[in-house]
Specification:
The complex is a heterodimer of chains A (198) and B (200). Chain A has 198 residues and is an all-alpha fold. Chain A contains eleven helices and no strands. The radius of gyration of chain B is 42 Å and the shape is rod-shaped. Classes of the chains: A mainly alpha (198), B mainly alpha (200). Chains A and B meet through α4, α5, α8, α9 and α11 of A and α1 and α2 of B.
């Protein structure tokens, strides 16, 4: 079992959704991520390291669906630094995942805004490390899909997360994740030429 | 397409999805060797938690303050009284001025002037007997006794007016203090509620 899989199994609590419901729960029923957030707020820096380990794949996937692969690692660090600085602004510790996902999406938007303001470089130059051509081509196909589908598909196919895990981490509803996965996969199959003819 | 496998990797593996997973898995997140360079402490942010109770208390306080100010600055209770008082005061002042200048105030109803037409007489008769100030331009002479009585009336009127103003001021002050007490109590109640239930 990989580190990521172990972490996601630790965090996933069936039947519980992040967000407003977490605030209604008594302090004794706080989710593991909420406990980690509270520990960080009390000054425990090690707990933030654990949060990083647990949520970095999600942030990586969200960024990968929006910005060039070579820029993603730096942006992941940026997102976690911003999250660490602004952790006091988070009202509900149980909503950490959705909050972090929003920071990642905003950071990707900032990246494109700054890129437009400065000189635009070809994407090949931005890729610091050479990657598998087949993988990047498949990723480009996913990134050409509508925004609602590409993030979910990247989290599922690149980061290896399951549908329930994606919903739990990002704060989306399981139903919408399921629909996005199904429709996105159908579109991707069409682009790959794998769609079965009726 | 095996939807269960796509959803939670259960059931038989879909070969196409598996192939995509293997290909795209090369781009998966790899934890960097260097630890995340965290700043020393997270930033302490100021929280303003909107509370309906607090907002209501603030609104009540503002209303009470505004009401207190209005009551304090208002010259009299009603507009009618104010008009009558103003007219009376003006009348008395006019009389005093006339006395000082040696002019005689009118005694009894004003006699109609020669230039007054019959229509004007009808109009004057139909008017209510209200204390209206009529400009007195004709020089008249007061007897000494009437002068003193007039001065006494003027003094009594000024004194009563001052007393009325003082009593109104005291009333407004008492209302303002009461309003501030009520607002203070409400704020204390809200503060206690917030302290008891910090989640709201």
């Amino acid at each position: 079992m990989s580190e990521t899989e172990a972490a996601t199994k630790l965090l996933f609590i069936p039947g519980r959704r992040g967000g407003a419901s977490a605030a209604a729960q008594p302090a004794l029923e706080l989710s593991p991520e909420a406990l980690l957030v509270e520990a960080v707020r009390r000054g425990d820096r090690e707990s933030f390291g654990q949060l990083y380990d647990l949520y970095a794949p999600m942030v990586h996937g969200i960024l990968l669906a929006r910005v060039p692969w070579g820029e993603v690692d730096d942006l992941v660090q940026d997102v976690f630094l911003v999250a660490f600085k602004k952790l006091e602004n988070l009202r509900e510790a149980g909503a950490f995942g959705g909050w972090l996902a929003m920071i990642a999406r905003n950071r990707a938007m900032d990246f494109h805004r700054r890129k437009r303001e400065t000189e635009e470089l070809p994407e090949t130059l931005a890729q610091k490390v050479s990657v598998d051509r087949e993988a990047t081509e498949a990723l480009e196909l996913i990134r050409a899909l509508p925004e609602a589908y590409r993030e979910t598909l990247v989290l599922r196919l690149v980061e290896g997360m399951t549908g329930p895990e994606i919903a739990e981490r990002t704060g989306l509803t399981p139903a919408s994740v399921r629909v996005n996965l199904h429709r996105g996969m159908k579109l991707l199959r069409g682009k790959l030429g794998l769609e079965k003819q009726p | 397409m095996n939807e269960d496998y796509l959803w939670d990797k259960s059931g038989d593996a879909d070969p196409e999805i598996e192939r995509l997973e293997n290909t795209l898995g090369r781009l998966r997140f790899k934890r960097p060797v260097e630890p995340l360079p965290l700043p020393l402490t997270p930033r302490r942010a100021f929280h303003f938690n909107f509370s309906p109770a607090l907002a209501a208390a603030a609104a009540v306080l503002l209303l009470l303050l505004a009401g207190g100010l209005w009551l304090g600055l208002r010259p009299s209770h009603s507009t009618g009284e104010k008009n009558v008082a103003t007219t009376n005061t003006a009348h008395e002042e006019k009389r005093n001025e006339t006395i000082v200048s040696g002019a005689r105030p009118p005694i009894g109803p004003e006699p109609p002037t020669k230039a007054q037409k019959p229509e004007d007489k009808k109009l004057t008769a139909s008017l209510p007997a209200s204390p209206v100030v009529v400009p007195d331009k004709t020089p008249r002479h007061y007897p000494q006794r009437q002068l003193m009585a007039s001065q006494r009336r003027a003094n009594v009127s000024i004194n009563s007016r001052q007393e009325q103003l003082a009593s109104e001021g005291a009333h407004a002050k008492a209302q303002l203090i009461l309003a501030l007490h009520i607002a203070s109590d409400k704020l204390n109640t809200v503060q206690k509620k917030i302290q008891l239930d910090p989640g709201t």
